[in-house]
Specification:
Length: about 290
């Protein structure tokens, strides 16, 4: 791996140190680094700007930041076909495989092809209004139908493969991939799903009913959610993307494409859960305020 794209969180405080390291690697390791057009003003000139016509030349992409930065970088991974490696500069970095302290070793592993590729499922989301498609997108973690700023609960009808599943009154509903099962869905009480399998996890947010539980659906299912009475918001991977109106239908299927993650180590998914989410630990040391 010699031609590497760079995607950066512009709010990172240590960016000058990172740029110095990349400049060093550029000179001593024979690497070529590239930045994307939308970040050409925040990344130094020694990192060349790459145009869309040359996207296929990239061997990989480094994402510098937290999980939010990684999620935003997935669009470039999909557009270029290059696998993605997260360098965690945030608080949790659950999606990141490396850190700034491990950067040089990680770069050496990339150069020497000491890595594996792991493919992750994506959601494909379609919004229909008056039977016409008005919005399409993909998401790596989740799609959330959320009440937004209104204090009222929202009413939804949920179908799978055109068969009625349930009607719900809640703050919203989360539809996540296995990758997203350890994000918002987990915080809302959803199950942890191995990222090596494909599935949908549907978890309600504060449902106004006793005994409601998360549900797991086949990746071959076609999920449909119909807004009944009031306006709400569609969020994808943590970003508000569309205002939803009564009668709108949100259809979610498994995307045909997948995001390629770079795996540098033999750390299992469960080791990461134990280390970063304290799975199975009875006493977690809390930081002082």
């Amino acid at each position: 791996m010699k031609r590497i794209g760079i995607y950066f969180n512009p709010e990172v405080k240590t960016k000058e140190i990172i740029f110095e390291l990349l400049d060093k690697f550029n000179k001593t390791k024979g690497l070529s680094f590239y930045k994307f057009e939308e970040q050409k003003e925040i990344i130094p000139p020694f990192i060349m700007t790459i145009n869309k016509k040359d996207f296929s030349k990239l061997d990989g992409i480094l994402s510098f930041g937290g999980d939010g930065t990684f999620l935003r970088a997935t669009k470039f991974s999909l557009e270029t076909g290059a696998p993605l490696l997260g360098i965690n500069l945030g608080k949790l970095g659950f999606l990141s495989e490396s850190s700034i302290d491990e950067l040089e070793k990680s770069v050496d592993d990339l150069i020497n092809n000491k890595f594996n590729i792991q493919k992750r499922m994506l959601l494909r989301i379609t919004l229909k209004r008056h039977k016409k498609t008005i919005f399409k997108a993909i998401a790596l973690n989740d799609a959330v139908i959320y009440k937004g700023f209104t204090p009222k609960l929202i009413n939804l009808k949920f179908y799978t493969n055109e068969r009625f599943v349930l009607e719900t009154r809640s703050d919203g509903i989360i539809i996540s991939t296995p990758t997203g099962s350890t994000a918002y869905s987990l915080s809302a009480g959803g199950p942890i799903i191995s990222p090596l399998i494909d599935a949908f996890v549907v978890t309600q947010l504060n449902p106004h009913i006793l005994g409601m539980r998360s549900m797991v659906f086949s990746p071959d299912d076609r999920l449909k959610f119909k807004i009944k009475e009031q306006e709400c918001v569609l969020q994808l991977d943590g970003n508000n993307v569309q205002q939803l109106l009564p009668g709108d239908e949100i259809i979610i299927v498994k995307a045909s494409e997948k995001v390629k993650f770079i795996k540098l180590t033999n750390k299992t998914f469960y080791q990461i859960l134990r280390k970063k989410l304290y799975m199975g630990k009875m006493n977690v040391k809390k930081s002082s305020h």
